[in-house]
Amino acid sequence: MSTVVENLKQDFIKHLSLRSSAGAIESLKVEFEDDEYVLQDLAQISRKNPKTLIINMSSFPQLIPVTMKALVDSGMNMNPQQEGTTIIIPIPKVTKEHRESLSKNAKALFVKCKENIRDIQNKYTKTVKNKEKSEGLSQDDVRSVSEQLKLIADQYIEQAEKMLNDKQQELKGDPK
């Protein structure tokens, strides 16, 4: 469960920043022929100036269309343009709509994290219930362990929710 919360934290850092940066798009997933690739493995990513990112796709020019689609669909408010084997990305201005969009993306990541934590809780609860049948654990022990699992899961969800609230305040520009 702690891994799920840590993954949420990393997703917030990598994918939900007000300013798009080279680091934010390096880990962008690009799908090609039923495989997923990380953008930094396919291209050179650099900063031309403070308001422009350059992606050199000369190593894999056949992946330019799927890379452009991945950039547009990333939710980072990017409008990439192609020039030969180079993709130019003007970094968008930070607008209220962009802030709200990022905030919604943060909420979606939190919901996914919460579902993963509940899945882990349910998996271990089922394991304990199976032990009741196979190893003769008492129903009281099973109930006690199930309640403890729920408490642990709730603590991790609470931690993730605090991270969500902090990130949404940061994205919306609200003072704490």
Automatic annotation (TrEMBL):
A Pfam family: RRF
Domain Ribosome recycling factor: 8-171
Gene Ontology annotations for the cellular component aspect, listed alphabetically: mitochondrion
GO molecular function terms listed in the Swiss-Prot or TrEMBL record: ribosomal large subunit binding
The entry's keywords: Protein biosynthesis
Gene3D superfamilies, sorted: 3.30.1360.40, Ribosome-recycling factor (1.10.132.20)
Source organism, top-level taxon: Eukaryota
Biological process, per Gene Ontology: translation
PANTHER family: MITOCHONDRIAL RIBOSOME RECYCLING FACTOR PSEUDO 1, RIBOSOME RECYCLING FACTOR
Family stated for the protein in its record: Belongs to the RRF family.
Protein name: Ribosome-recycling factor, mitochondrial
Organism: Diaphorina citri
